[in-house]
Design goal:
By secondary structure, the protein is mostly helical. Helices cover 51% and strands 3% of the residues. It has one domain (23-273): Histone, subunit A. It is built from twelve helices and four strands. Helix 4 (117-142) packs across helix 5 and helix 9 packs across helix 10 (221-249). Residues 4-65, 69-82 and 285-290 have low confidence and may be disordered. It comes from Crenichthys baileyi.
Amino acid sequence: MAGKDKTVVRTLEDLTLDSGYGGAADSVRSSSVSLCCSDTHQSVSHGGNYWHLTESMHSRHNSLDTVNTVLAEDTEILECAGHCAKLPELEEVPWSLGEVEGALRKDEELMVGNPSPEVLARLSALISRALVRMAREAQRLSLRYAKCTKHEIQSAIKVVLSWTISVNCITAALSALSLYNMSSAGDKFSRGKSARCGLVFSVGRFFRWMVDSRVALRIHEHAAIYLCACMESLFREVFGRVLRSALVERDNGIPKITLESMEQAISNDSEIWGLLQPYQHLICGKNSSGRKT
């Protein structure tokens, strides 16, 4: 029986990715070693086995650009002195500051704030925490069949984000995927996936990040499109809320977004405050009394 289980693992690791990214299929074999079949399998109602992570997720280059997920729930997730464990800080994110500015420019109303490079860098660092949260949730949802599709990404978006923000992000993802599916066969060689989806962020870079972060053994290209479109929409959503807060505070003249005003606006918005905090346990903002939850 044990030999049969080992054969199943080898078969899954030998499967190629469900997308046309060429050499990425080879890289997933080296980055999927942390996913393995449990020694004591538990049967489920409609077939299949439970999958678990034997270790924290590490990238192929042993850097911190990983979602670093430990699925087992135990008391060790709390650090000493009563402090809550923090999310890993990504060394590399699948977007550049130029792409962030380009994504904001898609909505002309957002550019009246004229964000400085420092504001864009801080915004990128904050929203990278949301990326980690969604990747961790997508990874958990992908364990059953060792495959991450658009459905796992969509479910992760609904779990991690508030209802209002998740609707906007899913709408953006559906729009991007529709444009991609409606593109002609000739566009496959003349335009990249991001252009075919109408996105500024690079779909290929998101796909590579998901592979390196070991979100799943197999990653469908639609999952990368969904996550890419969601993050691009989330940047506009968060910055739009910051800008509206600055407009309320300044009745005359064009508001200039600063690091202080951005932090204050985020702190006053319960839908994004908890999302952008570095602590693992936070999934919401503040209650009606202003206390953090």
